[in-house]
Design a protein that fits this description.
alpha/beta; 14 strands; 15 helices; 16% strand; single chain; six-stranded parallel β-sheet; 2 domains
Length: 425
């Protein structure tokens, strides 16, 4: 069986493809199945998409979806369903936490809830060897009109998984991406990680590959192609200091390749950052989210003190590392005064770079439920393709126009940062 994964682009098509299909492809290929990737840029029309899919001759189509991708994916899946007599399966956060809505759209035959490797393999085997009749129930897979399925336990040992199929990541220029763990212990209300773990109440969802397994993949990559820079995709690379220290020791002895990580300010120390820098780390990305202590404490459930942010950014610079801050705008219950506090904290942090994003309420998160309970969600928000500066919320104390105004204010700050940095070059 051949599955063709469609990467539904919502912005540029030059970035990394969704990593999920790469992991799925690596798992099913040793069992005789094929996998390919088709990127679907915003410029690709419906007719062009149908022609590109027909050229691949797939037996099944797969889409890994977030809420941001859903407004564009829904009509495309419906059009493909009318054209091709092949099943269409969706995975990712949208399928996991909005499976009923997704399946009711008429464009999908299956929604994969939770981890998908074993479920996809079982589905492909059943389709290949079936006699054309109805398939038996498959754990983790939901079909239209059916109740949520039972879930198989999460894969217990990540070291036993094959290395990701990099041809489905569409990496370029020798910049390669790795994941060392699945799961996250933090209860942030804007993130679905905690809700994913809650799908498996009797199992440990947070798992990490061994340092030896990660280094084995790096050796394989070094032997098979150019490796110029590494980006670790883990939400919090610095979760387990003993693991990080062992990685830094062993990686630093064998490799001389720069890399980037994501971290939380609560999980770093000057000593740990120094070890990371000595091993080759060049860049740390921190989620700051809000400068308002009230928003961090009451809305985000991240009661981190401002001094901790300031210390972490100072330690990062002292270690010779670039520090990036990420901010969220238009959070539920936020006011203009709260965003002004974010601007004030940004000025004190003075990051080397920063990202800023209008908050999106993703199904499966606590904030999504809060927005629904408070009546903040715009009617038809699930189907609305929103511009980067547009909010999906209607809040009495922070109008959408004011959120957009703050978004553009952050954009000008970033442009000014770049103008100063590159003046005269």
């Amino acid at each position: 069986m051949k599955i063709l994964f469609l990467e539904i682009e919502t912005a540029s098509d030059w970035g990394l493809a969704s990593p999920g299909p790469g992991h799925l492809a690596a798992f099913i290929r040793p069992h005789g199945h094929q996998a390919a990737l088709l990127r679907v840029p915003k410029s690709l029309g419906e007719g062009q998409l149908r022609a590109a899919v027909a050229k691949e001759r797939p037996d099944i189509l797969g889409l890994s979806l977030t809420a941001r991708q859903w407004p564009r994916a829904r009509p495309l899946a419906q059009a493909l369903k009318r054209q091709f007599a092949v099943p269409i399966i969706a995975g990712g956060l949208q399928a996991t936490f909005a499976s009923e809505h997704l399946l009711a759209s008429g464009g999908f035959d299956y929604a994969c809830i939770g981890e998908g490797e074993e479920a996809l393999l079982e589905l492909l085997d059943a389709l290949e060897h079936g006699a054309g009749g109805p398939l038996p129930p498959i754990r983790n897979l939901r079909r239209p009109g059916e109740p949520p399925p039972s879930l198989r336990p999460p894969l217990p040992d990540l070291d036993r998984l094959p290395f990701v199929a990099r041809d489905l990541l569409d990496e370029r220029h020798g910049v390669l991406h790795l994941s060392t763990q699945r799961g996250c212990p933090f209860p942030c209300t804007y993130c679905a990680a905690g809700r994913i773990a809650a799908l498996y109440p009797n199992h440990r969802y947070q798992r990490r590959r061994s340092v030896a397994n990660v280094l084995a993949e790096l050796r394989h990559l070094r032997e098979t192609g150019p490796v110029n820079y590494l980006v670790f995709l883990d939400d919090t690379f610095t979760l387990n200091p003993p693991w990080v220290e062992a990685f830094c020791r062993d990686y630093g002895r064998e490799f001389a390749i720069g890399f980037s990580i994501n971290a939380r300010v609560e999980t770093v120390t000057p000593q740990l950052l120094g070890r990371l820098a000595a091993a080759g780390c060049r860049h740390v990305i921190y989620g700051v989210e809000s400068g308002s202590p009230r928003i961090r404490r009451e809305v985000l459930k991240r009661p981190t003190q401002e001094e901790r942010f300031l210390h972490a950014f100072q330690w990062t610079r002292q270690a010779g590392l670039l520090a990036t801050a990420n901010y969220l705008l238009g959070l539920p219950g936020e006011t203009p005064a709260d965003i002004e506090q974010t601007l004030a904290l940004h000025e004190r942090l003075a990051p080397d770079d920063f990202g800023f994003f209008v908050f999106r309420p993703y199904p499966g998160t606590s904030l999504f439920e809060l927005c629904r309970a408070q009546g903040y969600l715009l009617e038809g928000h699930e189907e609305r393709p929103l511009a980067d500066d547009q909010s999906a919320l209607r809040m009495p104390d922070l109008p959408a126009e004011e959120i957009a105004s703050y978004y553009h204010r952050f954009a000008e700050l970033r442009a000014e940062l770049y103008r100063r940095r590159y003046a005269g070059h």
